[in-house]
Amino acid sequence: MNIHQNKVAETPSKHWLNLIDQLGDQLAANGSAHDKADTFVADNYQLLKKHGYLTAMIPKELGGAGVSFTDMCAILVKIAQYCSSTALALSMHQHLLAVNIWKYKQEGTSEEFLKEVVDKNMVLVSTGARDWLDSNGTMRRTDNGYLVSAKKQFASQSAIGDLLVTSIPYNDPEEGWQVLHFTVSMKTDGIQLLDDWHTLGMRGTGSQTVIFSNVFIPENSIVMKRAKGEFPMFWNVVLTVALPLIMAPYIGIAEKAMKITLEKSRAKQSRSLPTTFLIGELYNSLTLAQVVHKDMIEIANNLDFQPEERIGVEILARKTLVANACKETVNKAMETVGGQSFYRILELERLFRDVQAVGFHTLSEKQQQNFTGEFLLK
């Protein structure tokens, strides 16, 4: 019996989740301090870096720990219950890894890139959410490359990022308007950060605006070219791997809100009918979020899927459902707890602020509904 228990305790998913609980008090204290100071959760990142979370999902043969996509979603849910900003920032790094792990598994590419992430324990930064199909900025041809100027907002973790994954529109003389995707070191001349991440919630994600001022991008840094404004088939891969990871921190927020509400309600000497009714509503909202998020993870199938046209539509619709259910859960938690929830010391106030960010991830609800409607009417 003891041998069996030890084996269970040593399974990879248990190890990574249990370690978060061991680090939880530090993650929570650091996260609270950074939230109050409007600063990036740098010390939490150092903890996670030290314990291998930034490279955990990379396959073992490339130097990572081989943590599954499904387990990484569970890890992000767990981290969010201690610090939602840390979890959301980490989800941005993980989704860029997941895209390249998919390419490695399905196409046999990205091996060198993933090995480099392991060797240098790099932090990856994305601007994809704001860029969507058109992207923004200017790009002009020069010898052996391009000169780029742009303003890229919502670049999570840019405060300590190593490598930026982004895109810029380019009017090719022969092929017309395109969007060129590339990676560039955050330390490249002409790249600077604005100290402008002063927000309602998710204050610790370090999502500063990145400014490009005539930054030279070598031709060999371009990893993809696509027609501007058109939905590329590869976006079905990006959406399918990114959104379950990005929604995971919000599931963690909703679960934490439920936990706090139950603790506060149980502590009361008497409970009114509205309280028990609200807790029932709260549970239903949380269950909806969890069930639909689980479905998103199953669609991703541990990165074993093909980018069919419908898969991106399915993921986007589920993202909207999860987002709304998570917000509803926290709203109901505030209503159930009552006036105490307005005090910062209870933490529900912070969870309420942080969960507001869920609606701004690609795509917003109305954009998603329009996108889905257009697809269904084809």
Model description:
- This protein has helices at 2-9, 12-37, 42-50, 69-80, 84-107, 111-120, 128-131, 235-267, 273-300, 309-337, 348-355, 365-376, and strands at residues 124-126, 138-142, 145-152, 163-172, 176-185, 191-194, 209-218, 222-227.
- The chain is α+β, with helices and mostly antiparallel strands.
- The strands form two sheets. It has a four-stranded mixed sheet with strand order 1-4-5-8. A four-stranded antiparallel sheet has the order 2-3-7-6, with no helix packed on it.
- The chain folds into three domains: 2-122, Butyryl-Coa Dehydrogenase, subunit A, domain 1, CATH 1.10.540; 126-227, Butyryl-CoA Dehydrogenase, subunit A, domain 2, CATH 2.40.110; 235-376, Butyryl-CoA Dehydrogenase, subunit A, domain 3, CATH 1.20.140.10.
- The model is unreliable at 1-9 (pLDDT under 50).
- The protein is built from twelve helices and eight strands.
- It is globular and about 75 Å long.
- Biggest β-sheet strands, sense, barrel: 4 strands, mixed
> What structural class do the secondary elements suggest?
alpha+beta
Find the CATH superfamily of the largest domain: Butyryl-CoA Dehydrogenase, subunit A, domain 3
Chain-averaged pLDDT: 94
Q: Name the CATH class of the largest domain.
A: Mainly Alpha
Strand composition percent: 5-15%
Give the SSE string: HHHHHHEHEEEEEEEHHHHH
Please name the CATH topology of the largest domain.
Answer: Butyryl-CoA Dehydrogenase, subunit A, domain 3
